[in-house]
Q: What sequence folds into this?
């Protein structure tokens, strides 16, 4: 069973008289363990697609199954619970809480699923250590470099053992060297921990790290190509 | 399930980040709670003082005064016509069921002498029931008896002020003093009672048997005449009955026809005092209500700052929502923040209010009583203010769209 399965989803915004079709009949299936890059010009619908995948937005029409759960028709709190359990977000702007230590930022998702404080701390420390941030646990975001901040954000995305990572231009605010580091990190997570990663990017170099590229234009999928399918782990499901 | 300790920690951190702002917001609550406590303390102190004065004149008290007279079209003042007698007093006690105790009084000012000291004081001729009516115990010696009244013995009870002025450090018991040159033996000393509600020194008093006063000291225009009759009702509820019964009995005894006015006046002293007490209570409420307005203003201050805080932290709210915060997680975070502000303000306000009332006591020499109830009330009210004024900003925060909130600059 696919981790993500969208069936003919569309998203329509009513802007006065005209209606804008941000998504127009998108059907995509993403298996567990895939590393997918979503590309397309601004306004192509890729951000809306990511919002729907991230359960931050509901499609106007169509069906979206995430890990077998039909997300359509769930209320705000049910969506929040799903985001908490199933999805780790990585943002271009890092979106760490200011004036809050790296450790507490990583603990954040666990505040909302009743993990006890001792366990919370233990898991957050492990995640930070995995990402090479040992010794930085008590630094606030403004004391960390961009690459370190993004790694804190990745630790936050991993800490609840969510099967899906959604990354929205994760290297957009980083220099080339750090971008490569972050991408290597994501590739490693995909290869070694079998994380499913969906990543939005403008840059072909970044997209090249992925095993599958989906291109959007005017709210539709115009190309969906797998690279070297033999090497990909899309066959591994579950 | 909502993680309260973690939410509390988040709230405290947010308050610490903006120390100045938090302190100023709290100041509104501090002033409000402090004002409520201090004002209630002032009011409660005043009504306690009045209550104490009421009990010092005796409870359930009715005073009967002789009426006014009209002679040749000239109306004289109240008490100008001596109409009350000892027999009236005895009859009231015997025939009015709502009456517990009666004491006739014939009083006047008199010069008293002991050794080489002399003093002018109020001399009250009365019966043993008087001490019961005034709820006035002796500090030493014995009261005079009905036997003393019957045989008009020359014995007296002296008040503390008289003791101080006449005897100094000498024990007055058994000493002989002269009241209007008539020698009296001091058989007992009255306990200190303090000021009357009218500010008179109640301890500047000598009690003697009423018969002695009539025969030896003041004289009477007709046999058995007394100046006033003090009546103690069985209970506060019986007081109106007692008043009515006394009026009916006296009209009957004085042979007044249906068209004639009373030749006496009945004053329900306790009721008058109770009215005074009631009005002080109203004043207390009023002071408290005015002070509560400042607490309300403090609450609006909290709401204002919380709204600013929600706007400033839109992105933070978005991040929290993205990682799984539910509606009530967000709401509670801001409500707890508002509640923390108001409760810390409340605690400091209680300290300020209590010390404020102490200062008022010391500087204005006004009795203040800080009641435990007023502390709980003020604290509870400040908590309520926190929740009430914190709810709207928290509600607003919880309705944010996570996508917009994440993009908020």
A:
């Amino acid at each position: 069973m696919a981790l993500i399965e969208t069936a003919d989803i569309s998203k329509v915004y009513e802007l006065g008289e005209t209606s804008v079709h941000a998504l127009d009949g998108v059907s995509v299936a993403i298996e567990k363990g895939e590393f997918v890059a979503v590309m397309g010009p601004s306004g192509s619908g890729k951000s809306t697609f990511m919002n729907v995948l991230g359960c931050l937005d509901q499609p106007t029409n169509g069906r979206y199954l995430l890990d077998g759960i039909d997300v359509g028709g769930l209320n705000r709190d049910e969506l929040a619970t799903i985001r908490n359990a199933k999805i780790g977000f990585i943002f271009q702007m890092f979106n760490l809480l200011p004036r809050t230590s790296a450790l507490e930022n990583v603990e954040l998702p666990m505040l909302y699923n009743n993990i006890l404080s001792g366990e919370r701390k233990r898991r957050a420390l492990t995640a930070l250590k995995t990402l090479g941030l040992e010794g930085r646990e008590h630094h606030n975001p403004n004391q960390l470099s961009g690459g370190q901040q993004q790694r804190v954000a990745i630790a936050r995305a991993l800490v609840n053992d969510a099967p899906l990572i959604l990354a929205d231009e994760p290297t957009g605010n980083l220099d080339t060297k750090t971008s490569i580091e972050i991408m290597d990190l994501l590739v490693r997570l995909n290869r070694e921990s079998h994380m499913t990663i969906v990543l939005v990017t403008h840059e072909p170099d970044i997209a090249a790290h992925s095993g599958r590229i989906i291109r959007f234009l005017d709210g539709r999928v115009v190309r969906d190509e797998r690279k070297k399918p033999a090497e990909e782990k899309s066959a591994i499901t579950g | 399930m909502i993680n309260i300790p973690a939410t509390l920690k988040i709230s405290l951190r947010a308050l610490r980040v903006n120390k100045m702002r938090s302190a100023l917001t709290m100041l509104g609550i501090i002033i409000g709670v402090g004002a409520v406590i201090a004002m209630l303390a002032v009011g409660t102190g005043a009504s306690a003082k009045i209550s104490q004065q009421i009990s010092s004149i005796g409870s359930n008290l009715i005073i009967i005064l002789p009426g006014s007279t009209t002679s040749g079209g000239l109306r004289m003042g109240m008490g100008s016509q001596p109409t009350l007698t000892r027999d009236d007093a005895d009859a009231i006690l015997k025939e009015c069921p709502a009456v517990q105790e009666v004491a006739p009084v014939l009083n006047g000012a008199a010069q008293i002498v002991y050794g080489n000291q002399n003093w002018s004081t109020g001399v009250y001729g009365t019966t043993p029931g008087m001490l019961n009516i005034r709820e006035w115990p002796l500090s030493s010696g014995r009261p005079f008896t009905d036997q003393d009244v019957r045989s008009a013995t020359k014995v007296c009870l002296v008040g503390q002020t008289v003791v101080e002025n006449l005897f100094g450090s000498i024990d007055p018991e058994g000493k002989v003093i002269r009241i209007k040159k008539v020698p009296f033996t001091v058989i007992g000393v009255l306990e200190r009672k303090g000021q009357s509600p009218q500010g008179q020194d109640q301890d500047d008093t000598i009690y003697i048997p009423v018969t002695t006063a009539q025969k030896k000291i003041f004289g009477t225009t007709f046999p058995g005449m007394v100046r006033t009759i003090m009546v103690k009702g069985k209970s506060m509820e019986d007081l109106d009955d007692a008043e009515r019964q006394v009026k009916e009995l006296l009209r009957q005894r004085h042979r007044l026809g249906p068209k004639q006015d009373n030749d006496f006046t009945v004053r329900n002293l306790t009721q008058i005092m109770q009215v005074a007490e009631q009005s002080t209570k109203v004043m207390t409420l009023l002071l408290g209500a005015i002070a509560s307005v400042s607490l309300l203003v403090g609450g609006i201050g909290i709401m204002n700052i919380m709204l600013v805080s929600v706007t400033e932290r839109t992105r933070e709210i978005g991040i929290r929502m993205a990682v799984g915060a539910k509606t009530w997680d967000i709401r509670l975070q801001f409500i707890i923040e508002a509640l923390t502000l108001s409760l810390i303000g409340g605690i400091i306000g209680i300290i300020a209010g209590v010390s404020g009332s102490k200062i008022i006591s010391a500087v204005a020499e006004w009795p203040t009583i800080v009641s435990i109830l007023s502390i709980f009330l003020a604290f509870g009210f400040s908590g309520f203010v926190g929740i009430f004024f914190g709810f709207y900003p928290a509600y607003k925060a919880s309705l944010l769209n996570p996508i917009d909130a994440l993009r908020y600059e």
Q: What stands out?
A: The first helix of chain B runs from residue 4 to 17.
